[in-house]
Specification:
It is a single chain. This protein is α/β, with parallel strands linked by helices. It is built from 10 helices and 13 strands. A hairpin with a 2-residue loop joins strand 6 and strand 7. The radius of gyration is 22 Å and the shape is globular. The model has no long low-confidence stretch (mean pLDDT 86).
Length: 352
């Protein structure tokens, strides 16, 4: 078979980048350096950031596409080079230098259980053996301290290598910080955007997070200065979208996905979690009642071409765990805890 560059590009046009849903050819991710020597093909794929979570999976998909659409006799495995548009920043200047993956948990609107999902996702990752930090960045409605039973905790300052750091609270195998630790829980926070953004920067840069595998950030719902501050302050591995199946929540989730995909923000979407997917009474564990609609999250994930990480049912034990300061993911004999563990496993697998 006679190989030529257009044949290679036609095959690669079947490969889609998970972060945007567009094929890698029209996205200009295939560099104009396709080299052909007999049956051997080599070329370069260009990604925006050095820590792109999908780089390895896209390379594998590109190899498979060539073998599928051209022929298995083509030698391409190991011949694809990865390049980046942006040079990595010096580690000394980067906050969270000891963190492997930073995951923002986001919802387009309030009331969909975003903080509950963030808390249980973090716990599930910790139970899998990872070192995990959890930041409650929901400046105006911090709920993480309540969910972990540490409302009365007050982080202390400690000097490390000549610098004063805020020391996170350790609970349920996590390192936790929240603006709720530093304010009166009975009074509402009335802050302008700049004040909220500065508070978030302090919780990130002035805290001693140490070495972490995952840094989970519970963002405020909607879009605000806090979201822009986060993107400008640290290199996010990606965002996880939380929604319920109902149309109102889905519409706002769609806006949030588009926000992260905006050229000025450009944060990969790691997946979507459909919360309150159905109601299951404790006395009828086999029954499912679709109170907020059925498969709304699944349809949105397909429409936006992002992974569906899982569906979390609406059950009493989740609410009880949050109110009691013991996230349901801590329980080993619980169906809902298993649902969160599966979500965590899928997320971790996509990033390893």
């Amino acid at each position: 078979m006679q190989l030529y560059p257009k044949l290679i590009l036609d095959a690669l046009s079947h490969v889609r980048y998970p972060g945007t849903g567009r094929d890698i050819v029209s996205s200009d991710m295939v560099e104009d350096d396709i080299r052909i020597a007999g049956n051997t093909v080599s070329f370069s794929l260009v990604f925006d950031k050095p820590n792109d979570p999908f780089a390895k999976s896209v390379v594998k998909a590109a190899e498979q596409a060539i073998l599928t659409y051209i022929g298995e006799e083509v030698e391409v495995k190991g011949n694809i080079q990865i390049k980046f548009k942006q040079e990595p920043k010096p580690k000394a200047e980067k906050p969270l230098a000891g963190v492997r993956h930073t995951i923002a948990v986001f919802s387009g609107k309030g009331g969909v259980g975003k903080s509950t999902v963030a808390a249980n996702l973090a716990v599930s990752l910790a139970q899998m053996g990872y070192k995990v930090g959890l930041l409650d960045a929901d400046i105006h409605g911090p709920s993480i301290p309540k969910m972990f039973g540490v409302e009365d905790a007050r982080p202390v300052m400690e000097e490390i290598d000549g610098r004063q750091y805020i020391m996170p609270i350790e609970q349920c195998g996590l390192k936790i910080l929240s603006i709720g630790f530093f304010v009166d829980p009975d009074n509402a926070l009335v802050w302008r955007g700049g004040m909220a953004s500065n508070a978030l920067k302090q919780l990130i840069a002035d805290a001693y997070w140490g070495e972490l595998d995952y840094f989970v950030i519970d963002l405020p719902p909607g879009t605000s200065d806090v979201h822009l501050t986060l993107v400008q302050t640290i290199d996010l591995t990606g965002a996880v979208i939380v929604t319920t199946p109902q149309d109102v929540a889905l519409a706002d989730a769609r806006k949030g996905i588009n926000m992260f995909r905006n050229d000025k923000i450009n944060v990969p979407i790691l997946g979507l979690i459909e919360n309150m997917a159905w109601f299951t009474p404790a006395e009828l564990p086999e029954n499912r009642y679709y109170i907020f609609g059925k498969d709304g999250g699944k349809r949105l994930a397909q429409e936006m071409n992002i992974p569906l990480l899982g569906e979390i049912p609406l059950v009493q034990s989740i609410r009880e765990g949050g109110d009691a300061g013991m996230p349901v993911a801590m329980r080993e004999d619980n169906v809902t805890a298993e649902a969160f563990r599966q979500v965590a496993e899928r997320l971790a697998a996509s990033l390893e």
